[in-house]
User: What shape does this take?
Amino acid sequence: MRRFPDGKRFAFTIIDDTDVATVANVGPIYRLLEQLGFRTTKTVWPLDCPEGSPDFDTSQTLADCSYREFVLDLQRRGFEIASHGATMESSDRARTLRGLEVMRATFGRYPEVHANHANNIENLYWGAERLDDPVVRALYRLAVREGNVYQGHRETTPFWWGDIAQKHLRYVRNLTFDTLDVSRVNPTMPYHDERRPLVNWWFSAADADNCGEFNRLVRVEAQDQLEQDGGVAIVATHFGKGFVTDGRVNELTASLLERLSRRPGWFVPVGQLLEWLQRSGVGGSLPAAEWRRMQWRWLADLLTRGVRDRFLPRLRRRFA
Ligand SMILES: [Zn+2]
Assistant: This one.
């Protein structure tokens, strides 16, 4: 069985995408995480979105003083601050670069970790371009009927920033799965993909869009299994979606996190965990069979969740 630092038996962390997050609706969950000894990763948007945003305009950004102070305080307390692009809607090259400079000026360095957001056109290798298997790609196109063509990695477009991404970012989130222990699906992590060379290293995550899905994913039996298998859990979620009501953390979430915190897990931010995995020799080039299985599993999970939600159009937004 794999051994983690300090004699820990498994790893658990979270990448919280900043969609609809405000100080009020995520502050209490971060206080709880800190008390319980979890240090996780939070993405932010450095810039506001003057053109408006139909789905995300309740979100706060670093342009908002109180939110900036809140995020800086999280950084001081050991949380990792990561990139979710410049803002909640598409950004051309100039705005993306301006966003990264604001991140550097605010936090003292460029972000190490990045996650693409929803349907932003500057997303790197996104949509059907995440996939190579021709059948999975065709089925994905049928299911999602995507309108946008993603351009962040295409040099001749106004949304190009692949050169800058390669220079500054170290880890980018790719496929997400409906299982807590991502090392079962993607043991070779982080991985480099020669067909997508502008991203230095990719990682996978477990997907929990909102509080209800998080509680299901982190249920006690899944925690037991994670600990028993010495697994690696990186949960991609949105703490802005239902984790806090009237200043209080969802009771089930709080009790699941408390139980988890008592287990012998290594609870460090995403960048630190991936760097350790890399130094341990776990990452590298993805074997072809592993990549093929990952794509099929990703599609199966996507369709299952779509049916479960009984709201197929939401699939388009699920990569947020
Ligand atoms: Zn997002």
Notes: The pocket of zinc ion is lined by residues 17, 19, 84, 117-118, 320 (CB under 6 Å).
